[in-house]
Amino acid sequence: MISNVWKFLRVVVAIAIAFTILACQKLPLFAHNAPAPVIVKLSSWAANPAEQKLLRQVLNDFELQHPGIKVKHEVINDQYMDVIKTRFVGEAAPDVFYLDVFEAPFLMSQDVLEPLDAYIKPEFDLADFQETLLDSFKYQNHIYGLPKDYSTLALFYNKQAFAAANLSSPPTTWDELRSDSKLLTVDRNRDGRIDQYGFGEIPELARQAYKIKAFGGQLVTENGYAAFASVAGLQGLQLAVDQYQKDRTSAQKSDVGTNSGSEMFGQGKAAMVIEGNWAIPYLTETFPKLEFATAEVPTMNEKKGTMVFTVAYVMNKQAKHKAEAWKLMSYLTGKQGMQKWTATGFALPTRKSVAEKLGYEKDLMRSALRRSASLSPFVTGVDYAIPWQAGKYPAVIMNNFDNQFVSAMLGQQPLKQAMVRSQAEANKQIQAME
Questions:
Q1: 20: pLDDT confidence band, cut at 50, 70 and 90?
Q2: Positive or negative, the Cα torsion across 244, 204, 132, 122?
Q3: What is the average pLDDT across 185-211?
Q4: 135, 168, 283, 336: which one has the fewest Cβ atoms less than 10 Å from its Cβ?
Q5: pLDDT at position 1, please?
Q6: Name one GO biological process term (predicted).
């Protein structure tokens, strides 16, 4: 019995000595010392909590498939581009970040973004992207951004107002829009105050640029100077001014005490507006009793036209872990990641195959999302849409246009005088910055 005890003790001592030796040699026995994951910093903004939550879910899926990479996601909602530009100066810019198409020309020209051509392989299927969107992030024959989603403009119309005016279908030309607006403009109390305007006009350049191009005008020259005051460019703008001043069948948001075209439409102050697909969930949730539908923007000068707004993922040229940064970008804009990002109808996919798989073009999403309005006009419009860009100094051009065009709409000065004045001032400011 005693001998058995001694045998047992010897075994225990031997095991203890073995553990001590292993510990001294720093050899892991049960634990595996895995290398620390590579940190990739991603900066973005979030339009609302739902968008932020959705992106976090997609990033979690990426990390599960790439355990060696950890994404540090930073949300910047205030003065986003100012913050990004400041960080570039301080060499503290994120590895990957959102870049709006509006800001892209300037940043691409500053040699701070990584060209993506060398990373893109055939299996990434670049041809699957909508060409208009991808081209917006090309500069000097290099690709600097991969568009993650987009929005276009389409016509929203109040079905109840149309029925009351005996209109059976939405206008397909701008002449029809003006004639329909006369029937839809209503003074219910016959007191000289309009209760419902036919059309809600948004005078900002972002909503007027396609009108400038409808008659052959341009926003900017090849070297980035303002060019919207040409004779051709003024023709489309004049139609908007005439409807507002002569027909008196359109209104601006400030005329009816609202903050946006969507709100003007939702409150019944305008029977038609031209808005982006972002207005659909807003109208559905805020005005649940509103019966509305969507159609393509009416043609002007026998030409189809609309605007497209898009955002891309881009890479910092000074990123420390470019291979990992590319893996993140290629996942987020690849077929799998994009399908997860756009499957809820929150945004429109930039890949044609994803749009087809999710049923956007055939409008299968409408019933799935319980929406009365069709997404099809927004998807169709991307083929002929004008990207929301205005050269390397877009804010200068936009601000000068907006200030003077509103003045012309209000009749404070002739349209030509307003546009020539704003173009000259914009170019004076651009010249000072060159």
A1: very low
A2: negative
A3: 93
A4: 168
A5: 45
A6: maltose transport
The residue ranges of DSSP E strands in 193-349, in sequence order, are 199-200, 250-251, 272-276, 292-295, 307-315
Query: For 256, phi and psi rounded to 5 degrees?
Result: -115, 15
Residue 32 within a domain = no
Cα separation, 420 vs 397, whole angstroms: 12
> What type of residue is 302?
E
Query: How far is it, in rounded angstroms, from Cα 296 to Cα 383?
Result: 12
Over 379-411, what HEC string results? HHHCCCCEECCCCCCHHHHHHHHHHHHHHHHCC
DSSP 8-state symbol, 197: B
Quickly tell me which residue has 């009365």 as its tokens: 372
170 and 289 part of one domain: yes
Q: Which residues pair with 196 in a beta bridge?
A: 186
Q: Rounded to whole angstroms, how far apart are CA atoms 77 and 374?
A: 30
**CA nearest 96: which of 315, 326, 328?**
315
Please give the C-alpha separations between residue 381 and each of 132, 133, 268, in angstroms, as whole numbers: 11, 12, 26
Structural domain boundaries enclosing 105: 38-151+308-381
In this structure, what token pair is assigned to residue 400?
């000068």
Claim to verify: residue 363 and residue 428 sit in the same structural domain: no
Count other Cβ atoms within 10 Å, centred on residue 317: 15
Token representation of residue 222: 């090849």
89 and 157 within one domain: no
Query: Which range (39-43, 44-48, 115-119, 220-224) has the least confidence?
Result: 44-48
- CATH number, domain of 424, equals 3.40.190.10
